Amino acid sequence: EYVIVDGEILDRTVAKVDIEDRGYQFGDGVYEVIRVYNGKMFTGKEHLQRLVESAEKIRMKLPYSPEELEPKMEELISKNELDTGIVYMQFTRGTSPRNHVFPAADVAPTFVAYTRKVARPVESMEKGVRSILDEDIRWLRCDIKSLNLLGNLLSKQKAAEAGCFEAILHRGETVTEGSHSNISIVKDGVIITHQADNLILNGITRQKVLEICSNEGITFEERAFTLDELSAADEVFSSGTTVEVMPIVEVDGKPVRNGEPGLVTRNLQNLFKAEIERQCGQ
Ligand code: PMP
Predict the structure, then answer these.
(1) Could you name the Gene Ontology cellular component terms for this entry (predicted)?
(2) What ipTM score was computed for the predicted complex, to two decimals?
(3) Which is the most buried residue in 165, 224, 236, 262, by most CB within 10 A?
(4) Atom of ligand 1 nearest to the CA of 182
């Protein structure tokens, strides 16, 4: 298995980062996860663009442009003979003696990338998954895909311990997103999902779903919705790079409508699959 450390392709067993890497000490860095189908990256350009934006938001300059990163990831995918899975990539603010202040400008970011086999979650997508509600205790820059994920981890762990796939996060009465995905509801045929602001990560999957809706004439609203609206929803679904469009059939022990995936979600799953096949082949 091959990985990339600082631009170099190495065997996984010899890859190393320093104990004073700022990612390790502070979570001072940004990352991306890109889906791979048939050995090809899906929405790769959109993910690389978001990586650049996340880096800019934490005042970090990436040593490579998206145009330089794309072929590197392609090379890694090919060397690892990855068919269906993900590419993970992260940049930290580099290695320097521990200090909250940024290191000097000549300290280069640490760049790490690897691939992993991940199947499409076909069974869960078919049956739907269960969720819990949890207060969103994260910071106010959730639009940045940063390495600081403790709030997300605590919520996801709580969900896992309850035998659930996702924690739906809310700030008071307002639903924001999931611990590792975006959340949408469907009411009377209209899809409602939180607007892309500082309180959510603007998921690439979320954006692709909304683009599909625009093309297909499916109505949607990008606005905050409440816990009451969530309870009264006809359908609830989660979206994300690895989970695609995932029906949520239970929230905090209560079934969503009849407890089965709804027709709007089903339709979106099919349209999303068609988009995958268009970009990456069958
Ligand atoms: N929100 C959070 C908190 C996430 O971690 C993710 C990534 N899995 C998403 C939303 C979905 O983003 P994307 O569709 O780009 O994977």
Answers:
(1) cytosol
(2) 0.99
(3) 236
(4) 10
